[in-house]
Specification:
single chain, 88 residues, alpha+beta, two-stranded parallel ribbon, 3 helices
């Protein structure tokens, strides 16, 4: 559970080089950028029970009618910038 994870972090007396609030596209991108630049001791904190922020597939209209929400509508000038992240 999330509560147990929080207790483990608090009881470990860990010191992080960076703490990122939110595991949406911006937070995940920031964590990725830090890792690419040699900073591995990073904590990403997310309040929801999934990563991706507003990017989620909704099944509000039933299991046979999925609707993509959030970042599915982000497009670059020449191509969709999300496509490269998805390949990883």
């Amino acid at each position: 559970s999330h509560f147990n994870m929080i207790n483990q972090i608090q009881s470990s007396n860990s010191i992080f080089d960076a703490v990122i609030i939110g595991a949406g596209w911006a937070g995940l991108g920031a964590a990725h950028s830090l890792k690419q630049n040699g900073i591995d001791n990073v904590l990403v904190v997310e309040a929801r029970d999934y990563v991706g922020g507003r990017s989620i597939t909704s099944h509000h209209f039933g299991p046979d009618n999925p609707v993509d929400l959030g970042a599915s509508w982000i497009h670059g000038a020449h191509r969709n910038p999300i496509q490269e992240l998805v390949k990883r």
